[in-house]
Amino acid sequence: MKKVLLTGFEPFGGESVNPSWEAVKQLNGEVAEDVLIVSEMVPTAFGTSISVLKQLIQQHKPDVVICVGQAGGRLHITPERVAINLDDARIPDNEEKQPIDEAIVRNGPAAYWTSLPIKRMVEKMKESDIPASVSHTAGTFVCNHIFYGLMYYITSTSSDIRGGFIHIPYIPQQTLDKQAPSLSLETIVQGLRIAAVTAVQYKSDIRSVGGTFH
Amino acid sequence: MKKVLLTGFEPFGGESVNPSWEAVKQLNGEVAEDVLIVSEMVPTAFGTSISVLKQLIQQHKPDVVICVGQAGGRLHITPERVAINLDDARIPDNEEKQPIDEAIVRNGPAAYWTSLPIKRMVEKMKESDIPASVSHTAGTFVCNHIFYGLMYYITSTSSDIRGGFIHIPYIPQQTLDKQAPSLSLETIVQGLRIAAVTAVQYKSDIRSVGGTFH
Amino acid sequence: MKKVLLTGFEPFGGESVNPSWEAVKQLNGEVAEDVLIVSEMVPTAFGTSISVLKQLIQQHKPDVVICVGQAGGRLHITPERVAINLDDARIPDNEEKQPIDEAIVRNGPAAYWTSLPIKRMVEKMKESDIPASVSHTAGTFVCNHIFYGLMYYITSTSSDIRGGFIHIPYIPQQTLDKQAPSLSLETIVQGLRIAAVTAVQYKSDIRSVGGTFH
Amino acid sequence: MKKVLLTGFEPFGGESVNPSWEAVKQLNGEVAEDVLIVSEMVPTAFGTSISVLKQLIQQHKPDVVICVGQAGGRLHITPERVAINLDDARIPDNEEKQPIDEAIVRNGPAAYWTSLPIKRMVEKMKESDIPASVSHTAGTFVCNHIFYGLMYYITSTSSDIRGGFIHIPYIPQQTLDKQAPSLSLETIVQGLRIAAVTAVQYKSDIRSVGGTFH
């Protein structure tokens, strides 16, 4: 049986929940189509997030790692295409660090591509009526940080693990007093299950229309 | 036992489903807190919608009537405050009628207020983590038309029935290829159940902050 | 020569400028196509705004009155179709009054229609490449209040004056640290000039597509 | 005197104008703060855009090159931080080419950073009340393509030229029948003038808050 490690973040930025953790924790221990899902929480903190992630990888020895994070304001579940070598925080993280215009890995490459079949993951989610699309920016906060850190780790250790990142919208309870879109937790959980299984089952991606103008 | 009649519309405007009917049909026959919910479909057509609604009222003899319609692009479930005496259609309705700048009722009042406790309905939905807020425009298409027609009917027949209108967002399956927000069908069904029961149980509204700047 | 009175509001809600006053003051004293424009500021306050407006009408004896207000977040210049008999403030006004769910005029009609040719005004603005559309809600704050007060005054005094309200977007300087659209002050000034002259020149409106779904 | 080359694109995607060319052509030949601005149009076509750009660089021998493109739907003028080695077109370009998931430069680096002081450019524009912010994705259409091609050219030729890309919103005339934000052409021209001069005058950037969550 193949294993996929899903991570979700702690709440940050004044929110009392983080939908990424709320969603992935529901999938912990689930076996879907011969894929075992293991879920863990990681801190919303620049340095610590990567060191915790490395420990989790060594502990669980997954075939695929998918870090999941909140993208408040987005409409869709969005697998990310690319991680960039940049920390540029709008607010302090949960350990009060606020790096500005700093490389994540000194002399690291400017960017890493995901090694997940993101267009296939999007297609499978849409086949189940779940709003999904590819994103070309994971931002410059802890989400991009852990995504870059994950891909650097995989590359620099010549690991066979494949990895990537998925951003998810707010859940409804976070938008009661905000003018912002949401997707229900059930929809997000279903989408992540499909995405995780697809990521394990397929190493190559499909070639379909899914780019962005800007 | 009190009875509430919920109506949903046929699909229109190129959509294959109308979330208002998808949602209210799930509640048909349900008894919640000593309130019986009866659900019916009405045509998305200016003239016919009101005549069908009148027949349904005479058939079911409800205590409360709530018409429900799709507001594609809205973020929240939005009970409407006011219906205006105006048909002004951007597109033809499902019977190919496209009235422009016409009164719904000649010499009728410019507007009717809902007779439902809309702020209480919003409050109750939010207590269950459902995004909801009061709206001050039901537009000028068939949604506003049936809402005005309902309130005119109630007023002109001196009926004890109380009535109103609720707009709901798209459901996720409608937004797969749109940049638009949605709420899951489950969330909408739960919200409408709460709103319907609250509308029957309370004749008076609460006084809470819920206005709009524009 | 015909005369049109334009009013703009004081800043409110933490803004340092109000684009409605910034725009209308630039038109004060201008003569365009045989129409004299007179501009005045009114307070962003429920009670005072209408009493000040009445004094200005008696002082200037205009043929047409157009009150202008900020609609932060809107994309277009939006002549309003209808004023409703409701004060429902999200925040205190500039005199610390915050009416909630109160009638503007006790026993007044639920709503008044504008007496301006709003679709013609929209058409003329669009012919000059200015984003404009009809709106069907002026909200429930001071903008709707003065609009309703104006139409009540005209009606109850059997005046020949025609009146209405136009909402305008933010100007760019207000959006430097907001995720919100704006139109430049020059565009708004040009749009209001066109709208004001059109409002004076035409008593009847055109019949064109311009309704809203919700 | 230093020289900056600004490029704008041909219209595409059904638009009759491209605001990038409308804006940059107004700056052609202008001297601002001892900086000469030269403006040229480039085709909205994957392959051709870069070859035309190279010819223009060899012809004009600029100190700084800034390519400008339309980002319909954006609120701000957005200097781009990073170009990625990916063509992924949602629609065919103006030469009917629609590459999907193809590298721009085979074996090229995944990404290049801009060599312009983008935070300083944003700061200077905001000081003049122009809505501006840093962007971390230039998309995957011709805008990103020419940006990557520019940075690859500069790097592979060991040129001293500094280069980058700026996305701009629609202008108002494009949004008459769209629900989309715009900035006036005057505002965009003023913003690009400030950005161009700042880009020439400063080689190093400031360290200020300007990252994105996602």
Automatic annotation (TrEMBL), chains A, B, C, D:
Gene: pcp
A GO term, aspect molecular function: pyroglutamyl-peptidase activity
Phylogenetic lineage: Bacteria, Bacillati, Bacillota, Bacilli, Bacillales
Subcellular location: Cytoplasm
EC number: 3.4.19.3
Name recorded for this polypeptide: Pyrrolidone-carboxylate peptidase
Entry keyword annotation includes NAD: no
Family the UniProt entry places it in: Belongs to the peptidase C15 family.
Organism from which the protein derives: Fictibacillus terranigra
Top EC class of this enzyme: hydrolase
InterPro entries: Peptidase_C15, Peptidase_C15-like, Peptidase_C15-like_sf, PGP-I_bact-type, PGPEP1_Cys_AS, PGPEP1_Glu_AS
